[in-house]
């Protein structure tokens, strides 16, 4: 078998989640102990089986064997070394510096062997994500975007898609991660690849606060893997656990983490170990179990100064301080965890730290600052599509009897069902007293709802609602009008849908305001409606047909 065929065959097995078969194939190669490419692939395959000692040994040997190698080989080895580094971040590791060297080689430019270029890019991105070096992962993903897009096999592409979706999620770009996860699922085949795609989708759906989809996907994965064995199945369990955690299902997430981790967490990479323990600590925190929280943190507390798990450990210690009734100490830990996560580009984790900080502020009776920070977090989360973070902020506020203000520009989607009723009635010209009578509310409550409606649309007056509201309303179940209109009336309805006032329509059509009102009244009669909002909805719906 040629060297190229050997590597391709081994990769096929790894991508089909048969890493044990890949290792046996590679170890049978006569020059396995000295060929840096074979050693790099062996290291990668061992990582996927959680044989971390063997993974590190092969990575170190590959680095030594590739000092004078070509650019493709050296970058391949550095990518494998990065993954191995994620299994042990102890000081003085021979693998330290692999990403710095890879960065320099990428900056220097140069061609790569076309058949391996995608694998080089994938391993560098995967290794950086495993080490939660998000800035480095993004640089590699951008530098190798074309090569990654040309991944030659559907099996390989599932692995590549998965790491890119996780990278986007780490960066807080949840809406983009959702699109990547969907593309991954559509490209995945059946069996293990489809299961991995569902686990990634579950993680993303949880952060989008899609409860039904998250729980359905979680159920599928658990039914397919009753008890996880091996690194692949463990990874699927942890991804699903993180998805449930985003929905604040801490006990459900902990059950998955417990099944995936075993008794001593030794089968997990450094970062996965920290995050799995954090899921378990969150469950213990919910039960106010100080003893269990301290026991769990003890597994990893010594790692707090390592770059990878530091923020997670600080968040766990923050929860412990809250349980002990020391909110000032908890606040300091939450702030440090957030700062470190932001410095690493870990936007999703930064949001978790910010929520913990507001809990500490509330415990310190500084509700004003807590509300301010929760509002800022929600606004940032909306921009990134991180719906779960917005709902987390809303839950924290609800616990102290406050509500999250609608994010400016969120429009119809940012309103509650009752606020939508108020918005429609207000846009149709009803006064506060009239709305209060229809909805059986007090005038004060109506005014409060109107204030939130105006905030959601980013406007300052009710008079602006008729021009802003129609374009954001759902267009489902809007009837097609059968009564014919004159050409001038059709022109008028188009301008109404564009949000123009009567005076603006009069100017645009070269007619008087009184004539506009006459035409509008005729349209109301012909279409059986009573407001310009209803006219606009019909026009917009039929434009889309």
UniProtKB/TrEMBL annotation:
Q: Please give the superkingdom of this protein's source.
A: Bacteria
| Keywords noted in UniProt | DNA-binding
- In the UniProt record, does the keyword Ribosomal protein occur? no
Gene3D superfamilies from the xrefs?
Answer: Winged helix-like DNA-binding domain superfamily/Winged helix DNA-binding domain
Concerning Pfam families, the annotation shows: GerE
What InterPro entries has UniProt attached to this entry?
Answer: Sig_transdc_resp-reg_C-effctor, Tscrpt_reg_LuxR_C, WalR-like, WH-like_DNA-bd_sf
Q: Where is the HTH luxR-type domain?
A: 408-473, 478-543
Provide the protein name: Regulatory protein, luxR family
* Species the sequence originates in: Plantibacter elymi
């Amino acid at each position: 078998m040629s060297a190229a065929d050997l590597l391709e065959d081994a990769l096929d097995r790894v991508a089909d989640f048969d890493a044990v078969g890949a290792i046996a194939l590679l170890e049978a190669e006569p020059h396995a102990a000295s060929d840096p490419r074979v050693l790099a692939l062996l290291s990668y395959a061992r990582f996927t089986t959680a044989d971390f000692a063997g993974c590190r040994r092969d990575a170190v040997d590959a680095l030594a064997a590739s000092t004078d190698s070509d650019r493709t080989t050296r970058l391949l080895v550095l990518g494998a070394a990065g993954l191995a580094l994620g299994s042990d971040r102890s000081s003085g590791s021979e693998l330290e510096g692999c990403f710095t060297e890879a960065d320099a080689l990428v900056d220097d430019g140069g061609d790569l062997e076309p058949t391996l270029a995608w694998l080089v890019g994938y391993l560098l991105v995967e290794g950086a994500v495993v080490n939660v070096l998000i800035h480095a992962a993004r640089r590699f993903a951008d530098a190798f975007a074309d090569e990654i897009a040309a991944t030659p096999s559907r099996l390989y592409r599932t692995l590549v898609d998965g790491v890119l979706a996780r990278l986007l999620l780490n960066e807080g770009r949840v809406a983009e991660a959702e699109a990547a996860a969907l593309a991954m699922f559509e490209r995945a085949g059946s069996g293990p690849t489809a299961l991995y795609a569902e686990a990634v989708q579950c993680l993303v759906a949880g952060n989008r606060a899609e409860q039904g989809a998250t729980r359905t996907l979680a159920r599928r994965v658990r039914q397919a893997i009753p008890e996880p064995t091996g690194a692949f199945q463990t990874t699927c369990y942890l991804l699903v656990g993180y998805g449930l955690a985003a929905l604040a299902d801490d006990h459900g997430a902990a059950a998955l983490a417990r099944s995936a981790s075993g008794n001593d967490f030794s089968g997990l990479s450094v970062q996965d170990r920290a995050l799995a323990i954090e899921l378990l600590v969150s469950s213990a925190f919910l039960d106010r179990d100080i003893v269990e929280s301290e026991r769990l943190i003890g597994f990893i507390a010594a790692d707090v100064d390592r770059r990878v798990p530091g923020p997670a450990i600080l968040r766990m210690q923050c929860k412990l301080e809250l349980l002990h009734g020391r909110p000032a100490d908890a606040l300091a830990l939450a702030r440090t965890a957030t700062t470190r996560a932001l410095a690493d580009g870990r936007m999703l984790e930064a949001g978790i730290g910010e929520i913990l900080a507001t809990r500490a502020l509330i415990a310190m009776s500084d509700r004003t600052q807590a509300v301010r920070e929760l509002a800022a977090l929600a606004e940032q989360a909306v921009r990134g599509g991180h719906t779960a973070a917005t709902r987390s902020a809303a839950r924290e506020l609800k616990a102290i009897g406050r509500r999250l203000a609608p994010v400016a520009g969120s429009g119809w989607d940012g309103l509650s069902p009752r606020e939508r009723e108020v918005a429609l009635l207000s846009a149709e010209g009803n006064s506060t007293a009239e709305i209060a009578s229809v909805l059986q509310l007090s005038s004060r409550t109506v005014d409060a709802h109107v204030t939130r409606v105006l905030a959601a649309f980013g406007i300052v007056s009710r008079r602006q609602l008729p021009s802003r509201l129609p374009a954001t309303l759902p267009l489902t179940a809007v009837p097609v009008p059968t009564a014919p209109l004159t050409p001038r009336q059709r022109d008028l309805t188009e301008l109404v849908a564009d949000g123009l006032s009567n005076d603006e329509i009069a100017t645009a059509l070269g007619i008087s305001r009184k004539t506009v009102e006459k035409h509008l009244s005729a349209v109301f009669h012909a279409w059986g409606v009573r407001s310009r909002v209803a006219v606009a909805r019909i026009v917009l719906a039929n434009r889309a047909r």
